[in-house]
Amino acid sequence: MSTTDRTSDPDAPVRTDGTEDAPGRTDGADSPGRADGPGGACAHDRSGRPRASDAASDADGLLAEQLLRLTRRLHRIQKRHLEPVGITPAQSRLLRTVAAFGGPPRMADLAARLEVVPRAVTSLVDGLEAAGRVRRAPDPDNRRVIRIELTDAGRATLRELRSARRAAAEDILAPLTAEQREVLGGLLTALVDPGPEGGR
């Protein structure tokens, strides 16, 4: 799952205020503290402070922007650490996915696990096979089925990848204390695996 930044400056702020507040109703000719009419930039309560719903929306928008910037930075750092290994992030993910199966998987198994079309798996396997990291082998029970096997070079690459991923993670997490890393790990687990209710 290799992605590339769509902007020349991946760290450039992303606008999150693409829509204006809807025109609000007025209870009097000149209700004090109201700024949510047509063209109003922000809705306020009668004391002149931004409404709680708008403040929460702004905070969520900022948080989403920070997560996007962190994702882009992580991709850049990961790519830099993978370059000496001679493998792309997408190939790295496929190689780790092959290793995660109990036995050599079929191409269809890999496509389903990676949630990509079979054509994308074929391209990745072609590149890894050309580098000697995997090989295609016929299924012993059905010669028409092709399975993907790790080679010795592929297993050696996996060891290099583990070291590269640890180095990339250290680059990202360097400013955090051990306690902060533990808290972050719990928060990321909640976001990545929200359970059946949150995954709907």
Protein structure class:
mainly alpha
Rg, Å, rounded = 25 Å
What fraction strand? 5-15%
- Spatial arrangement of strands, main beta sheet: 1-2
Largest sheet, in brief, is: 2 strands, antiparallel
Give the termini separation.
Answer: 22 Å
Fraction of residues in helix: 40-55%
As residue ranges, the low-confidence spans are 1-41
Number of helices: 7
Total DSSP E strands: 2
Give the integer mean of the pLDDT values: 77
- String of helices and strands: HHHHEEHHH
So what's the overall shape?
elongated
Characterise this structure.
There is one protein chain. This protein has 200 residues and is mostly helical. Helices cover 52% and strands 8% of the residues. It is built from seven helices and two strands, in the order ααααββααα. The protein has helices at 52-82, 89-100, 107-114, 118-130, 152-173, 178-192, 195-198; strands spanning 134-139, 142-150. Strands 1-2 form a two-stranded antiparallel sheet. A hairpin with a 2-residue loop joins strand 1 (134-139) and strand 2 (142-150). Helix 1 (52-82) crosses helix 5 (152-173). The longest helix is centred in the middle third of the chain and has 31 residues, at 52-82. The chain is elongated, with a radius of gyration of 25 Å.
Summarize the structure.
The chain is mostly helical and 200 residues long. It contains seven helices and two strands, in the order H-H-H-H-E-E-H-H-H.
